[in-house]
């Protein structure tokens, strides 16, 4: 049964890539770096979630420049953008996939690792295909991950395209902080996500 599920998701995903006649081979991916401006997101000492996700977004765009993927960064400045604004801007771009980047925080300082969320809507299967690939790319590097999770986050729920939210790690965990707050670590995070888009 597990194999059947995998094959189903794989086939749906494969068809998905070549489904758009306007750019049959090239997929358009919008990277939505969470927070910005007065909305700093999670914070640990002077380290801010909004900056971490912006940095990882930039690395991700750079890493995809030689792939057959058009990467559009929704936020290139440190600016506040409401969720409604994000939704409208993303919809105007008609992407094939949206990746929202965030970093986690928990009162339980032992919690760590990457988490990926998808919404339950008409795009769940396609979103799950990409979400699973992202998690697999981290697992291959023996990185701590959870199973793919379901969440009705505003953007995930309302976007009219496949979308995933990636929580890159926990600012509240000292081990996660080592990579969240280093250029080496941020490039590693971006690389794993980029490799899952191949
Ligand atoms: Zn966040």
TrEMBL record:
<dbReference type="InterPro" id="IPR050695">
    <property type="entry name" value="N-acetylmuramoyl_amidase_3"/>
</dbReference>
<feature type="signal peptide">
    <location>
        <begin position="1"/>
        <end position="19"/>
    </location>
</feature>
<dbReference type="Pfam" id="PF01520">
    <property type="entry name" value="Amidase_3"/>
</dbReference>
<keyword id="KW-0732">Signal</keyword>
<dbReference type="InterPro" id="IPR002508">
    <property type="entry name" value="MurNAc-LAA_cat"/>
</dbReference>
<feature type="domain" description="MurNAc-LAA">
    <location>
        <begin position="87"/>
        <end position="198"/>
    </location>
</feature>
<protein>
    <recommendedName>
        <fullName>N-acetylmuramoyl-L-alanine amidase</fullName>
        <ecNumber>3.5.1.28</ecNumber>
    </recommendedName>
</protein>
<keyword id="KW-0378">Hydrolase</keyword>
